Amino acid sequence: MLRSEHSRIDPKRRTVLDPKKRQFAQPLYKDQEYNFRLNLYTVPPTAEITLEEFEEWAIARLKILSELETCAFRNRNGEETLAYMTPLLDKNLPLHANRTNSSELQAERKKDHYSHFILRLAFSSTEDLRRRFSRLETALFRLRWRTDNVVERQEFTNSLDFNWEMVDDKEKVEMADELRVMTELAGRKAEDGWFKVEWERVPELVEQRKVLIKRGVAYVPVREQMSLVVTEFTKRLDIALEQTARALPRLDEDDRLSPILAHLSQSFTAPDATYDTSSTPSSLHPTANNIDQLAGHFPLCMSNLHTTLRQTGHLKHFGRLQYTLFLKGMGLSLEDCIAFWRRSFRGMTDDKFNKEYKYNIRHAYGEVGGDANRRGRGYSPYSCQKLLTEALPSVGQTHGCPYRSFTADNLVALLQNTGVRDGEVLNGVREDLARQRYHVACNRIFEHTHKKEIKRVKDDGLWGPAELDTILHPNTYFKRSFMLKHLDAEKEAAKAEG
Amino acid sequence: MPDAPAPEVAPEEPPSTAGAAVPTEDDLKAMEDMLDSDSDDEFTSSMPQKEEEEKEAPAPARFTDPDVMRAFYARLFPYRHLFQWLNHSPVPSDDFAHREFAFTLPNDIYVRYQSFPTADLFRKQCISMIPSRFEIGPVYSSNPRDRKTLRKASLFRPVSKELVFDIDLTDYDPIRTCCTGANICPKCWTWMTNAIRVLDAALRDDFGFRHVLWVYSGRRGVHAWVCDARARCLDDTRRKAIAGALELLRGGEKKLTLKRPLHPHLERSLRLLREPFSTDILLGQDPWADDTRAASLLDALPDAGLREALRKKWAAAPGRSSASKWADIDAVAKTGGSSTLDTGALLEAKLGIILEYTYPRLDAEVSKKLNHLLKSPFVVHPGTGRVCVPIDPRRVEEFDPFGVPTVTGLLNEIEAWDAECGQEEKEGEKRVQDWEKTSLKPYVEYFRGFIAGLLKDEKRPREEGEGMATDF
After folding, report:
1. Strand, helix or coil for residue B369
2. Tens of pLDDT along A401-427?
3. Of A185, A200, A206, which is closest to B472 when you measure between CB atoms?
4. Which residues take part in binding [4Fe-4S] cluster (chain A) (predicted)?
5. Strands laid side by side in the B221-226 sheet
6. Can B100 be counted among the known catalytic residues?
7. Which residue of B has its CA nearest to A200?
8. A281 and A491 in contact (C-beta within 8 Å)?
9. A279-308 per-position pLDDT tens digit
């Protein structure tokens, strides 16, 4: 596939083993030339950069990646993502094409190159981070591929050591009939060109009979090149990340980099869809006594916790934490929250409750704990993203996102229990689950259960599109649901204030 | 000399190989029971389902008679050829030594993970265990017999196996009118002939394979073993890709939807199948003779007007043959039975019907997995007593499944030969092999020729081939 020449260490870059020579030698760095805008990131950077640059560049790339993730999360299609990302990319991580002859070309590409490798270090530690990083980097690569100049892109692909060969004109004439059939089969008028690879390289295309195969060689239209390069990009990155993870414990460094790296990976996991707890609807007055009434507005993840709590009189640790934070986000005061839990744990002595449970609730509210915890007023309520990326609940645990942790059949049964019986909606949910679009399924249910109200606010022009955006946080779900069902009360409250 | 130990292939026996000691049948069984009972389902095998079907038709006792089978394994089975075929070199290598064999013993006990360092040891165990059949699995990364002693389970994984295909006439039952189930007749065998032609062309012309061994499965189907180095090292994704590319009615779907223009592979298949369709299918099978079957033909046609016109026409003339009915479609369409008729759609539907009734029906699951086991060539089919002989794809039309030698017939032929020419034999310098005295001879010779071609390719670009393998 790719020749393995690049795994050979350049003599200039080889480690000098003689300690004497090593001590007094001038560092030998091979400054990299960046000929192309796109980069497969095969060679790690070796030149020196300042600590500030190290952090700054990494943060810039991190910003891009998390925005990309948001796009995927909000289900934006390719065009929308491109439109959304272009200004962000220009600001944080610009990459200009060769033909612009920008004086910044090399510097931009250097920044791109270094930031990629810094984030590799930061995100190789766990399987989860690696997967996310590789997914987002692939998305970024694809985005750049699409925006790249056609000629330069071709030069880039030619520079890669792929064993593919363009079909020359002579052969095109010889194979004209068959190639024409393949073009028509794909529903196109003409192809830009064809290249030949061993059929093993394109198994998906072979399986769907989308390529012509002759004597073991597949004739692939040039437009499929992207998928090949992207597959290769992902494959290599995955391997490299694994290797990085293994090498990480032996990272030869003082303690300057590790805090930065730790910080980077932390901010990557932190939820980006935050919920502003201060803006609660004015007619909402949650107390320890009315949670049961409010539970009708809960998203499935929370109503599931609530019913379990009511049925068994108990919840396991992560369930309690998730639920407590949600209640906190709803605006339930600490006292009410403690009272709520105290009453919910039927058959538990006060003594046991105070000893084993109260502290955690207070901790979540930032009443106790370390300075950081108290200053930050405890943890913030979990977002959908957080719930979707956490480990799956094991037996007896009920936290997490039910759309993700339940099997489709169980989930549909659960939804039917909550009163969703529309076959079309349930089928839609099943499809979403099959495509792992859990938040889409949840939003689908929301739209179904609030159909009337949403229509009303839309027709009356009460709410703009921003207020009906995809829900990415359980508390948003609750708040929106509550407000939709109390439209009149809200209006009156607004009037009274006004 | 297939069943005599070849002097150059007799290395010292590795002490770890349990089979090398030639244990008695009972010993082995006990040992296997002890070792294997818990984890034999690690890798899939086609065995269980097949076994059940075989049982439906009780076999005449004499095929499975232990003495007959012992004589077969002692005198007729071409061990050395099998060894060379799987070993890819004259010197015993891991290709053979790490290859899994799975034996079905006469009492239906299934013994997996057998392996043998040499052809001779393999022969010894066959004679002592007299399996009613055995299957060939993949080459593993370490000796299958040692799999329980490895420190890490991951050290034991399948590495390579021939790309295999399995076509079975039972899959044609929905469109087969002459026989059902395990029975076959010359009429339905034509499907196999056509299947071999179509797939052989695709494997050679499209995928560039050169060593495709076709083997009669002993009763109602054929197997293909693609033995090229490039095919052997394919992983599951790529096997699945080939199977998918060659499979037309995917996963048992009922109707064909074709996109035109046809993919070159389908176009070529259609070229090969048009003629058999009009002879073997329309005349031979007469698939739409009765009304219910004719209705399924109508269902496949577009345009309600056309369907109605045809239905009336056929109802008026009961007993019309399929060939006439097929011709009627165009005739009615031309005379303008319907004003809304889309001729393109009709053509597509007709092509779809031709392919549906003629295109090979693969048991694709067999091809998709590297670790799937498949019955070895030259074993005796326990239900029919026929030997699973190779089929020469260049002369596929000459192959007659009913003329395939049976184990009892072969043993009689040896006796007849010995009685006739036994005297001369002693004078001759070279002993005549038992298989040479029988009608198995042409098949073994074909197999030998096949292996010679394979070994020639193996020897030359051994490095090249492996370089390619690691390249993917």
Report:
1. coil
2. 898 888 888 888 888 888 888 888 888
3. A200
4. 301, 384, 401, 442
5. B163-168, B221-226, B212-216, B390-391
6. yes
7. B238
8. no
9. 667 777 888 888 888 888 899 999 999 998
Find out if CATH 3.20.20.150 is the number for domain B7-167+365-471: no
Give the CA distances from residue B77 to residues B101, B106, B131, in Å, rounded to whole numbers and listed in that order.
Answer: 15, 17, 12
What beta strand segments (E) does A102-227 contain? 165-166, 194-198, 212-214, 217-221
Residue, of B25 and A464, whose pLDDT is higher:
A464
CB contact under 8 A, B264 and A212: yes
Q: How far is A224 from chain B (nearest CA, A)?
A: 17
Task: Identify whether residues A368 and A418 lie together within a single domain.
Answer: yes
Chain segment B411-449, per-residue pLDDT in tens: 999 989 888 876 555 555 567 888 888 999 999 999 999
A384 annotated among ligand-binding-site residues:
yes
Based on the domain organization, do A312 and A386 belong to the same domain? yes
Quick check: is B166 catalytic? yes
Q: Most B CBs within 10 Å: which of A207, A220, A231, as the mutation test of the B interface?
A: A207
- Are residue A302 and residue A433 in the same domain, yes or no? yes
Q: Supply the range of the domain harboring residue A380.
A: 291-497
Q: Would the CB atoms of A207 and B240 count as touching at under 8 Å?
A: yes
Query: What is the Cα A4 distance to its own chain's centre?
Result: 32
The CB density around residue A166, as the number of other CB atoms within 10 Å, is 14
DSSP A70-120: HHHHTT--HHHHHHHHHHHHHHHS----GGG--TTHHHHHHHHHHHHHHHH
For chain B, the structural domain boundaries read 7-167+365-471, 264-358
CB contact under 8 A, B264 and A182: yes
Asked if pLDDT for residue A104 goes beyond 90, the answer is no
- Name the pairing type of β-strands B110-114 and B163-168: unpaired
Cα separation, A3 vs A446, in Å, equals 52
B330-367 tens-digit pLDDT: 888 888 656 677 888 888 888 989 999 999 999 888 99
**A381 & A417 share domain:** yes
Q: Who among B209, B261, B468 is closest to A181 (CB)?
A: B261
Q: What end-to-end distance do the CA atoms of chain A give, in Å?
A: 70
**Closest approach of chain B CAs to the CA of A150, in angstroms?**
27
Distance of CA A124 to the CA centre of its chain: 15
Counted domains in chain A:
3
Marked catalytic residue, from B135, B146, B166, B280: B166
Q: How far is A61 from chain B (nearest CA, A)?
A: 32
Query: CB A214 to CB B206 under 8 A?
Result: yes
Contact B240 A203 (CB under 8 A): yes
- pLDDT band (50, 70, 90) for residue B19: very low
For residue B28, give both structure tokens. Answer: 């082995």
Q: In this structure, what token pair is assigned to residue B328?
A: 């009627």
Chain B neighbors of A208, CB-CB under 8 A: 244-245
pLDDT of residue B201: 95
pLDDT for residue A276 is more than 90: no
Burial B116-132 (b: 16+ CB within 10 A, else e): bbbbbbbbbbbbbbbbb
Phi then psi for residue B226, to 5 deg, are -90, 115
Q: Are strands A165-166 and A194-198 parallel, antiparallel or unpaired?
A: antiparallel
Cα–Cα distance between A61 and A67 in angstroms, integer? 10
B168 given a catalytic annotation: yes
Q: Is the peptide bond before B131 cis (omega within 30 degrees of 0)?
A: no
Enter the ipTM. Answer: 0.77
The amino acid present at A328, given as its one-letter code, is K
* Per-residue confidence (pLDDT) for residue B61, from 0 to 100: 46
